[in-house]
Design a protein that fits this description.
74% of the residues lie in helices and 0% in strands. By secondary structure, the chain is an all-alpha fold. It has one domain (9-119).
Length: 120
């Protein structure tokens, strides 16, 4: 089943209802959209878990120094703190976790080679 989306916004329309119940379309979306986004969230989740108390704590101290702030500023500040947590978590995942995982894999591979050599 194929679906057409016109590039001309003046001729654009919504997707037909069958798209939302089409198992083939769901399978494609699951592989191309959902799997990648969930994989990314899984990759950075440990960094997010470790970083969020630090970011929230520093943010709390910084915002506390700016008091009194109007009540309406709380929600933008909260979303900014979440965005900072995500950005810092992504950076620590890319700059710390991935290199350390590679080092660990190299050490484990070297250890496995040593075990094979001594048992041979």
């Amino acid at each position: 089943m194929s679906y057409e989306v016109d590039a001309d916004i003046t001729r654009a329309s919504t997707l037909p209802g069958r798209f939302y119940s089409d198992p083939v379309a769901f399978g494609v979306m699951r592989e191309r959209v959902f799997a990648r986004s969930w994989q990314f969230l899984g990759d950075v989740s440990y960094s997010l878990y470790l970083i969020h108390p630090l970011v929230f704590g520093v943010g709390y101290k910084l915002i506390g120094a700016l008091q009194p702030l109007p009540l309406w500023t709380q929600e933008p500040i909260r979303w900014a703190a979440i965005a900072v947590c995500c950005a810092v978590s992504y950076a620590t995942w890319r700059l710390i976790e991935i290199p350390m995982i590679r080092i660990g894999e190299a050490l484990a591979e070297r250890r496995n080679e040593e075990v094979v050599e001594t048992s041979a």
